[in-house]
UniProtKB/TrEMBL annotation:
Belongs to the periplasmic pilus chaperone family. Residues 21-146 form the Pili assembly chaperone N-terminal domain. Residues 168-227 form the Pili assembly chaperone C-terminal domain. It holds the Pfam family PapD_N. The lineage of its organism: Bacteria, Pseudomonadati, Pseudomonadota, Gammaproteobacteria, Enterobacterales. It is found in: Periplasm. It comes from the Bacteria. The keyword Protease does not apply. Keywords: Chaperone, Fimbrium biogenesis, Immunoglobulin domain, Periplasm, Signal. Its main location: periplasm. This is Molecular chaperone. InterPro entries: Ig-like_fold, PapD-like_sf, Periplasmic_pilus_chap, Pili_assmbl_chap_C_dom_sf, Pili_assmbl_chaperone_bac, Pili_assmbl_chaperone_C, Pili_assmbl_chaperone_CS, Pili_assmbl_chaperone_N. Residues 1-18 form the signal peptide.
Length: 234
């Protein structure tokens, strides 16, 4: 998910720079028994970029200086030269903020990519628009003692009520459901949905399904792939 943060206009629109920084994942899991988590950023562009990194609790409008989390990010701001990489380290601060121990907690990792302005391309009659782009990634804190995350999707229950379906997640893990597919191959939900640990969510289905009907739950794994689990509607 990428959000345009601001437009730095120099004179008038002529050319535009998009973001060049990529990271080595689409979601990140910090297990409690790990000392820290390392994320690799790479600048695939032809000019340097400045990256600002922070975590938020789900409000994308909050400024970094207004947010307090139980993690230290090092470095919070980094210059990444063209074609080079930068390791980002995130470490939980002991005894700071109360974090649930019986289930996962989630934050959003923000990376704001501010590309350099090439002054050599700016003349008296030229113009440039420089774009700073923010990318947001899911960042999970996984306490120890929650059990095996593998096959957690198989525990999700699907309840039917006419054109509504309720997805029940009894596990201590966040589970993202990409779709629920009928035996005839029709997807039932309009878009993927993330179900918080030990909670449920109700969605409008594209078509009515009956109790006892067999469906395939498609969910996203820790690594961003899709896993399928055949189940029966209750």
């Amino acid at each position: 998910m990428k959000i345009f943060i601001y437009l730095l206009a120099l004179f008038s629109l002529s050319t535009a720079h998009a973001n060049n920084i990529i990271v080595n994942g689409t979601r990140f899991i910090y297990a409690e028994d790990s000392a820290e988590i390392t994320i690799q950023m790479t600048n695939t562009g032809k000019s340097p970029s400045l990256a600002q990194i922070w975590l938020d609790e789900g409000d994308p409008e909050k400024l970094p200086e207004e947010i307090t989390t139980p993690f230290i990010i090092s470095p919070p701001i980094a210059r990444i030269d063209a074609g080079n990489g930068q390791s980002l380290r995130i470490k939980k601060v002991a005894d700071k903020h109360i974090v649930a121990t019986d289930r996962e907690s989630m934050w959003w990792l923000n990376i704001l990519d501010i590309p350099a302005v090439d002054k050599n391309n700016i003349t008296e009659n030229s113009a440039m628009l420089n774009l700073a782009i923010r990318s947001r990634f899911k960042f999970f804190w996984r306490p120890s003692g929650l059990g095996d995350r593998q096959n957690a999707e198989s525990k999700v229950q699907i309840l039917a009520n006419q054109r509504d379906i309720t997805l029940v997640n009894p596990t201590p893990f966040f589970i993202t459901v990409a779709d629920v597919v009928t035996s005839s191959g029709h997807g039932l939900i309009n878009e993927g949905v993330m179900i918080a640990p030990k909670s449920k969510t109700t969605l409008s289905a594209k078509q009515q399904i009956s109790r006892g009907e067999s469906v395939v739950l498609q969910a996203i794994t820790d690594y961003g792939g899709i896993v399928e689990h055949k189940t029966t509607v209750n």
